[in-house]
Every structure is written in structure tokens, then in C-alpha cells.
Amino acid sequence: MATEITAPAYRIIPIIPALKPGAMAETKSFVANEKIQEAIGFPGKLVDDWHDRAITRMGELLAKYRSLKVFLDACVHCGACSDKCHYFIGTQDPKNMPVARQDLLRSVYRRYFTLPGKLFPKLVGARDLTREVLDEWYTYFYQCSECRRCSVFCPYGIDTAEITMAAREILDSVGYGQKYSNEIIGKVHKIGNNLGLPGPALADTLEGLEEDVKEASGFDVRFPLDVKGAEVLLITPSADFFAEPHIDSLIGYAKVFHAAGISWTLSSMASEGGNFGLFIGNYDQMRKIALRIREAALEFGVKRIVVGECGHAWRVAYSFWNTLTGIGDGANDPFALQLQKQLDHRYKQPMHICELTWDLIERNAITLDKEANDQHIITFHDSCNVARASRMGDILGGQFEIPRNIIMASANHFFEMGDGTTHEKTFCCGGGGGLLTDDLLELRVKGALPRMEVLQRVADNHGVNFMATICAICKAQFTKVLPIYGFDRRMVGGVHQLVSNAIRLGDK
Amino acid sequence: MTAASILFALLFYLAALLFAGGLVYRVNDYARTPAPLKIPTTPAPITNGGVVLRMTREVLLFESLFKSNLWTWALGWIFHMSLALVIIRHLRYFTEPVWSWVVLIQPFGIYASLPMVIALAGLLVRRLFVERIRYISTPSDNLMLALLLLIALSGLFMKFIAHTDIIGVKTFVLGIMRFELQPLPANGVLYLHLFMVATLLIIFPFSKLLHAPGVFFSPSRNQIDNPREKRHLAAWAAKLESGK
User: What distance in Å separates the CA atoms of residue B220 and residue A152, rounded to the nearest whole number?
Assistant: First the structure.
């Protein structure tokens, strides 16, 4: 980018911003090239008959997804969602209002699939699918992080994420894909993880970690890779293997397994919890990526599958794995049957690392010294996919309580951020849903505004100097944007980073 | 028998047909379209009873809208509840003898028309003057509010200012229901009122008014949050498995 990106000013009172039409019309993430597209089975470049194929694909999706059909029909333009999107708040571009974003697709749906839209397009806001409209789809459906905050407030539960996913799927099907997401999906299939970290490099990294932890703690904490017969298969975002602060949480998981005496392993073939198939709304890709994990679980004969700190990975694991791979019950293909027989059903399958750790804490199976975190005054950022698209534990809202319980068991100083920005009303970090790419940095910085405003307030009022979160994308996004808002980049970290500091190794 | 009586009778047969047929078609379509993935907006109920409660709160109290914006909620809720009372009150023109609970509700139904008009006017003002809402409004959004407003105002006019021959209206309505055509009192305001009601019925299954049946089919609201315990699989997704 030519110009330096700066943070927008905090709003004095969080009023609804005035509209700035076209403010983000020029912000467009890089388009995927032919190689990237064809590697995952999409047309290499925009096909000649894109118009007809796009409409056909829309029709197919309408027949496959009730969500899409109902959501396109039911909106009454009440405006309940209109001020709820972090990208709208940060950019003031009216097309970043959830309803207006949906209308980019809805207008075309009305024109081609409804009677009033065919007869009186102007009256009902219907429009033809033109090249301009297609470009507008690409621009603004890659300015949505699929965080579902709007769906919390919609009287019909309309989830813009579903619309965005459908639009991206249509765009991919006509050869108009996004470089960032589609390149990553290619890497998962080819190498095993989103970062393209090959097996030997991963083994090296893990060995180095064992040495580092030995040096720091004096204990032989293991980071096993591809171990047959381990009890737990840990599926974690690949950022945990080398990015800061992610790696500190990986050390935390390892210490928890060590202290509790649970044997575990990572897989080089399935060394990725993330599933970008979700972001592009492609069921086949999502399923294919999920099946790698089933394959690894079968290969190693593990009894449990545990998922590390990653928001959308947990959504896919918790909400979709059973559907996609039959990990729990109900599936009757031979692989699923074998997996179900192999897994230990006294445990939830899959289980979040926070569920595992909290269970150990509750049973006094691990000991935590809270004082070890006394330098941290902590707040917790709920990650959107955990908060609004999944659950932990046995009770409604367990996804909010369990991570907080772990923090409070690991540290003495904890303060909530307020004003309807936590729990299911949490704001997206600004980098989710396939937008964590530097070509969208301006959008990411602006989208972080509502979170930064509230963080600033707890920093001022309570001296908060650490924001814990359980999502790899949140961690990477905040590391990048915190300095732009004048915070220390090391202010963000994982929940298991705090556990790592506090856990007592060796006794028990 | 006047030409107007015949025309209005035909109009109402057509409107009823399109309204009922259209809704049956839509509901059937929604019900048959699979929801392949578990996508409730969480925290979501983990039992069937919990989902019934969530849907009830959503439909009767507009819970999510309440969380969003108090003004929009107040105007929207008052409008819908008033409309419900007004519609129930109108059952008296369709039943002979009038059902006792309809008799009971009659005074509430009459006075509900006032808050209904006020709420509709508020919603229209909001559409015209709040920048964000004006941006997202289509001409049909405004016209629908205007239509409802005119229906309410013409009704109020006949109730409180210039009475129409309401006995005659009821005879006409019962005649339609029994397929024995009766004359409709000649009255311009009544014609307007009835014409706009028929219009509303006709556009219902083709427009955003589908939010009424749609809300019941919204996967983000009506799904149970139990994906780990129970497998959820659409028929088209199950077909992928045989290939594996």
C-alpha cells in the first residue's frame, strides 16, 4: 500500500456513524490466479458465460440451503442489523451494513427468481447481474468476516455469513476467487496445513520447542508428532507452531497434557485445525479438509480428538464434524463406523482444549499458581465463531464461562470489557472469515475500531494490559493492529499462554 | 346486484386463492429445502423445549429486535400486536353468531387501531428520515407502509367519523363465504378499504411479507444446539458419502 494506514479516531460516544457512500469501494483483496483456482477445482479465470453460470449456481444453492432461501425472502429492511457490523462502524460505507451487503445478492435474487422482481424491478430493488454487480459482490463479500454479529439482532435470525458464503461460492464457480483463501486451501491439501509448513520442518520446530521448555522449566515436556497409539490427537491451527503469541498457547497445551499424564500427538498430515472451506462456503472443500482429520485419527488409533485455540476451527469441529465425517454417531460408512468404535465416548468428541483443561482443573488433576500471572491484568475477547456458532461443556453459554473460568483459575486480575461487546454480542477482531491478508489491511484496521475503543476503556479504567483470546486469527489480527492503535503488540495472547505460566509441572 | 358487488366478490375470491395458495406453496418450499448444516446462532437451546421457548419469545416478543434497537422494537411490536387485535376483531364480520371470545376482544380491537396508526406512522417517518434506513429502503418498503396506513385510516374513518352500513357489509362477507352473492353497500371509503386489503393479501406471498412464515423456518433460530450428540445430515450431503 502506498499510503500509511492509520487508525480511525475513537468515537466520543459510540453513536451510529453517518454514511460515507463508496468509502470502501476501492478496497479489494487480490484475486486468485489460474494456478490457485485450478488447484482446488475452480475455473482458472472468469468464464465467458459467467452470467448464466452464476444464476444457475445461485439456483442450485437456493435448492440446497434453506438458510439462503429463507434469508433472502424474509428480510423486511427493518434496519436492526444496520449499525451492528464492525466494518460498517469502522468504514462508514453503507454497503458494509449487513442488510445492504445482503441486498447486493438479494437484488439479483429478486430479479431472476421472484415474480415482482421480474415484473417491477425498480419497485422492489431488483437488478440485473452485470459485470459491475459481480465486481461489487467480490469487493463487499470479501469485506465481511462472517462473524454473525448481525444475526444476533435480526428478528428473523438472518445470518449475513450465510449470504456471504453463498456469494463467494457463486464467485468461485465462475472463476472469480480470492487469492488469500483459495491459496490456503490449496496448501492444506498439498502440504497439510494453511501455512505450508512441511512435515520435516514441523518436526524440527517441535524438537526446538522441547528444548526451549526444558531450558525454561526444567521439565521434559514432549511435543509428539505422528505417534501411533496416543490417546489424544490434537488438531490445532498451524499458526500455533511458529507464530507469536500462538506458540505460547501450544506450550500451554503440552504442559497440560504433561501435567495430567495424557499421551497425545500431532499429525503432520492433518497439521491444521483451520478449515477455509467454511469461509468460501464450499461444502465439498469443507468436507474434504475435515476428512483429513478423520484419516489421521484412524491412522493413529487415538481415543480422543481435541481441538486447540482457533475460532472457526472450533465452529467446524463442534458444529460440522459430525455432519461432515460422522465423528460422533449416526454415520454408517465403514470409516465413520471404525472411528466411532475407536473413540472413547465417555469424552465429548471432538473436545475443545479449554473443555479438557477446565475438566482437569475442576477435578484437581492439575495445579495452577495464580501468582505466576500477577504481572498481567487480563480481559477476555470472545471470538465470534466460538461465541455465536458453537458451545463448550454441557450448558448453554459454556463457551463463555469455561475460558473465563480457566483464566480466573490461572490469574488473579481479570476485568470484563463492557457495553454489549462481549459474549454473543462480541465484536469481531476485524480479520476473520478469510480477510486476514495484508491487501485488506486498511479494512482490518478500521474493522477493529469497536473492539479497540472498549479495550482502551478497560486499559484506562483498570490498567488492563493483556487481552486473552482463543482464536488464531484474533491473535494474528490483534498483533498487527494493536500497535496501530497505540497498544503493545504483545498485549494479546492465548488462554493457554496464561495456563502455561501458572501450571505446576512435576507434582501430581 | 351492482357491478361493484360482483367485482369485489371476484376480487376477494382471487385474493383468497392467491394468498392461501401462495402461502402453501412457500411454506412447502421452505419445508422441503434441506438445511444441511447446524447453524443456530448460539448460545442456542440444547433441547426441543428450549427451541419452542426461543421461537415463542421471538414471535410474540420480538426478542432479537428488542436487543437491537428499542425504538424499532417498540414501533414494530406495537404495530404487530395492534394488527393482531384488529384482525381478530374483524372476525365478527365472518361469523354468525359471533364467537364469544371475539365479542370479548371487540373493545380492545377497536382501540388497538389507534396505536397501530401511530406505530405505522412512526415506522414510515423512520424510513424517510433516518439516514441508514432511508438508504436501505426500496419504494416497495415505503408503499407497503403506506398501504397499511391507508387501510387503518379508512377503517378508522368508517368506525369513528362516517359509518358505513356495517350490517350490509357483514351480509356481503357471509354471502361470499357461502357462495351466495349479496350486495355490497355502495360507499367509496369502504371500497378503498376493501380494495387495499385485497391488494395486501395478493402481494403477501410474493414479497417481504413472507417474513411471517419465514421466521419459523430460520435455521439460526429453530435448530437445537446438539451437533456433537446427534448427527445432522441432509439427503444431498448423505449422497456424498456413498462415493467415499
Answer: 9
For residue A107, give the H/E element and its range: helix A98-113
Count of C-beta atoms within a 10 Å radius of residue A498: 28
Judged by CB atoms closer than 8 Å, whether chains meet at B42 and A391 is answered as yes
Our CA-based measurement puts residue B98 at a distance from the nearest CA of chain A, in whole angstroms, of 35
Q: Which residue of B has its CA nearest to A65?
A: B35
Three-state DSSP state, A134: helix
Centre a 10 Å sphere on the Cβ of residue A144 and count the other Cβ atoms it contains.
Answer: 27
Smallest Cα distance from B152 to chain A, Å: 20
- Could you read off the pLDDT tens digit of each residue along chain A, which spans 508 residues? 446 788 898 887 666 778 999 999 999 999 999 999 999 999 999 999 999 999 999 999 999 999 999 999 999 999 999 999 999 999 999 999 999 999 999 999 999 999 999 999 999 999 999 999 999 999 999 999 999 999 999 999 999 999 999 999 999 999 999 999 999 999 999 998 888 889 999 999 999 999 999 999 999 999 999 999 999 999 999 999 989 999 999 999 999 999 999 999 999 999 999 999 999 999 999 999 999 999 999 999 999 999 999 999 999 999 999 999 988 777 788 888 899 899 999 999 999 999 999 999 999 999 999 999 999 999 999 999 999 999 999 999 999 999 999 999 999 999 999 878 999 999 999 999 999 999 999 999 999 999 999 999 999 999 999 999 999 999 999 999 999 999 999 999 999 999 999 999 976 4
CA distance A375 to A182: 41
Q: ipTM exceeding 0.90?
A: yes
Number of C-alpha atoms within 13 angstroms, CB side, residue B207? Answer: 23
Identity of the residue in A78, A79, A159 whose CB atom sits nearest the CB atom of B41 = A159
Helix (H) or strand (E) holding B24: helix B3-32
B3-23+42-242 CATH fold: Fumarate Reductase Cytochrome B subunit (1.20.950)
Residues of chain A numbered 276-305 and touching chain B (CB < 8 Å): 283-284, 287, 291
Q: Which uninterrupted H or E stretch holds A36?
A: helix A34-39
Place of cell 507464530: A243
H or E element in which residue A91 lies: helix A86-91
Classified as helix, coil or strand, A94 is: helix
Residue type, A72: L
Reading the block at residue A50, the C-alpha cell is 459467467
Inter-chain CB proximity B65 and A390 less than 8 Å: no
Contact between chains at B230 and A329 (C-beta distance less than 8 A) = yes
Cα distances from A273 to residues A236, A237, A390, A391, in angstroms, run 4, 4, 15, 17
Beta bridge partners of A494: A469
Query: For chain B, what are the domain ranges?
Result: 3-23+42-242
On the question of a cis peptide bond just before residue A245, with omega within 30 degrees of 0, the verdict is yes
> Which of B63, B73, B135 best probes binding to A when mutated, by most A CB atoms within 10 angstroms?
B135
Q: Is A63–B33 a contact, with Cβ atoms under 8 angstroms apart?
A: yes
- Stated as kind and residue range, the H or E segment containing A265 is strand A264-265
Residue A480: closest CA among A491, A494, A465, A495: A491
Residue B129 buriedness (CB in 10 A; 0-12 / 13-18 / 19+): exposed
Rounded to whole angstroms, the Cα distance separating A241 from A191 reads: 15
Residue carrying C-alpha cell 480511525? A8
Q: Do A396 and B46 touch (CB under 8 A)?
A: yes
**Three cell numbers at A151?**
444475526
Q: At what angle do helices A398-410 and A353-362 cross, to 10 degrees?
A: 60
Are the beta carbons of A325 and B240 closer than 8 angstroms?
no
Q: Cβ–Cβ of A115/B58 closer than 8 Å?
A: no
- Whole-angstrom distance, CA of residue B47 vs CA of residue B225: 8
Tell me the longest C-alpha to C-alpha distance in chain A.
76
